[in-house]
């Protein structure tokens, strides 16, 4: 059974702290993604990665960075957390295949981050 | 630019049929997904269309017209547990990256 796990379901941090959100997938997927989800704004892509040590900016990368040292792990880093980064963060992974449903994304359970 | 439009909210009655529409304008097209997301949970896969026509899967069906940039998700015999957000997402030219609509919040009432 496919599985994407995230390090925490709930996290509370203070303004200015450095925050690490971890995501691990066990499906040997090449592609991994970080989104944030806010009411009325839907899912917004922060960063994604097509391969180890590779990263690309999504639609809202400001204030975030990522790391992919191993194929199964993709980390999202908030260098200096701010209150406007309070949100639900979702990680996803997908495989690049030639068969049907290529690129179907499998999501982790999400991390609800509150920055006070 | 790239844009996916779907209604923000819909309400339907238990046992009824509801159709959720999605229109898209994207740079290229390589498939369209529908996901279901219950409150506080992760999105889960519902359907995938890459060719024109209807894909049926139990109570759920999804339709695609590539020439019109249009899809719909049809839910039959609605149940209370179908109350959720339904997300339309398109794969454009940038392989692997899904472009999501804002989601349609469906409320099923007794």
Beta-strand segment tally of chain A: 11
Mass-distribution shape of chain B: globular
Number of helices of chain B: 0
Radius of gyration of chain B: 13 Å
Low-pLDDT stretches of chain B are none
Largest sheet of chain B: 6 strands, mixed
Explain what this protein looks like in three dimensions.
The complex is a heterodimer of chains A (116) and B (110). Chain A is mostly beta strands and 116 residues long. Chain A is built from no helices and 11 strands. In chain A, the strands form 2 sheets. In chain A, strands 2, 4, 5, 6, 9, 10 and 11 form a 7-stranded mixed beta sheet that branches. The radius of gyration of chain A is 14 Å and the shape is globular. The N and C termini of chain A lie far apart (37 Å). The mean pLDDT of chain A is 92. In chain A, a hairpin with a 2-residue loop joins strand 7 and strand 8. Helices cover 0% and strands 56% of the residues of chain B. In chain B, the strands form 2 sheets. In chain B, strands 2, 4, 5, 9, 10 and 11 form a 6-stranded mixed beta sheet that branches. In chain B, strands 1-3-8-7-6 form a 5-stranded antiparallel beta sheet, with no helix packed on it. The N and C termini of chain B lie far apart (41 Å). In chain B, strand 9 and strand 10 form a beta hairpin. The mean pLDDT of chain B is 94. Chain B is mainly β and 110 residues long.
